Amino acid sequence: MADIVHLQIEKVVHGGDGLARLPGADDRRQAIFVPFTLPGERVRVELGPSAHGRREGRLLEVLEPAAGRVAPGCEVFGRCGGCQLQHASAELQLELKRAILLESLARLGGIVWEGEIAVHPSPPWAYRNHIRVQAVPGVGVGYYERESRRLVPITHCPIASPALNLGLAELAAAPPPRQATIELAVDNHDQGLHATGPLEFAVQGHRYRVSSGAFFQANRFLAEPLVAAVTAGLRGASAVDLYSGVGLFALPLADAFARVEAVEGSPAAAADLRHNAQGAPIEVVEQDALEFLRRRPLAPPDLLVADPPRAGLGPEVTGEILRHAPARLHLVSCDPATLARDLRALTAAGYRLTALHLFDLFPQTAQIETLARLERLE
To answer: Which of 28, 193, 264, 352 could crosslink 244 through cysteines, CB 3.0-4.6 Å?
Structure first.
């Protein structure tokens, strides 16, 4: 028979689960991770087995709800693996993400940040301009369940844009005859759902061609604030844009720097980057970031911007950045844990963290996007 216990949720941790403590032998308190709970709540939980040093609990009942608990905005929330925080108000979600960021920096990076965090909220619904769904014959079209490959059929996704939901409804009404992964995308004006060629995005006066397979920010409302925070107010002779994608930061940087080196390893994104950079003082380098830094002559740029994947910079790229010694470094991160690791190395080697921005690019989910601005100490 499964163990049923009452627990008090202490906090929400990276990934979106609530953390509680289960008293054990010798006064040790075992950590229990309970999805869909909030700080301060008293809950009834069915304990699961320990796996890889982690023990989860299944929420059975909220006995004492938090003040910020709300009714989820999606009928399949809790089953679908896409969202983790629909049970929290928009205001509470931002508070939770801010706390997770600060704790990650302190615990994993040794960085106790006491300055302001500039928080950039998004409309909580209908913000995505790109989704990827699964089609399974006889089952339907939808997303996978949390931590499984079972399909949750849907006809509507409340975090997707209106045009994407029209596409979802069409797919649900006439699903493909064989199993497939289907991508639906629109531009940041919610147009181009059935476009046969690349989409075109407009951000701060610049136009970006984005082909299938090339990455672009999925939140159709926050691209402009993100670009402004990364690039505005700076001028100089040279800038480097690592993991440049289709040039989201490179194009505005070219308005303020005499020379920009834009580095992108994906052939699809690099092709769009070349197209978008035409006429601008941008040198497009289709190359892995580490290989580029190893081959680049040692001439410290005035600014280096890096927007790496979830794995972060890592020790090798960080070491090469330190060797090139940019005067300023703007690091965009989608994972607080890897950000904390990278910042630990950078601050230990002579960089000072000067500003933190939190962008809520993915409301209703536990994902956190951060901009860390650093300066090299003389």
So the answer is: 264
Residue 179 in tokens: 């199993």
Contacts by residues 149-154 (CB-CB < 8 Å, ≥ 24 positions apart): 152/76, 152/79, 152/80, 152/81, 154/76, 154/80
Say yes or no: 8 and 103 in one domain: no
Residues 110 and 223 in one domain: yes
Say yes or no: 260 and 361 in one domain.
yes
Pair 31, 113 in one domain: no
| β-pair type (257-264, 236-242) | parallel
Q: Pick from 163, 170, 74, 166: which is nearest to 127 by CA?
A: 163
DSSP code of residue 88: B
DSSP state for residue 25 in the 8-state scheme? G
Kindly list the catalytic residues: 334
Residues 172 and 277 in one domain: no
What is the Cα–Cα distance from 200 to 177, expressed in whole angstroms?
Answer: 31
Q: What is the pTM of this model?
A: 0.95
Considering the domain architecture, whether residues 59 and 207 belong to the same structural domain is answered as no
Total structural domains in the chain? 3
* Tens digit of each residue's pLDDT, the chain (378 residues): 569 999 999 999 999 999 999 876 555 788 999 999 999 999 999 999 888 888 999 999 999 999 999 999 999 999 999 999 999 999 999 999 999 999 999 999 999 999 999 999 999 999 999 999 999 999 999 999 988 999 999 999 999 999 999 999 999 999 899 999 999 999 999 999 999 999 999 999 999 999 998 999 999 999 999 999 999 999 999 999 999 999 999 999 999 999 999 999 999 999 999 999 999 999 999 999 999 999 999 999 999 999 999 999 999 999 999 999 999 999 999 999 999 999 999 999 999 999 999 999 999 999 999 999 999 998
Q: How many residues are listed for the chain in this entry?
A: 378
Three-state DSSP state, 133: strand
DSSP helix/strand/coil, 323: helix
Domain carrying residue 163: 130-185
354: left (phi over 0), alpha (psi -120 to 50) or beta: alpha
- Same-domain check for residues 230 and 136: no
Residues 296 and 158 in one domain: no
**Phi and psi for 55 in degrees, rounded to 5?**
-120, 125
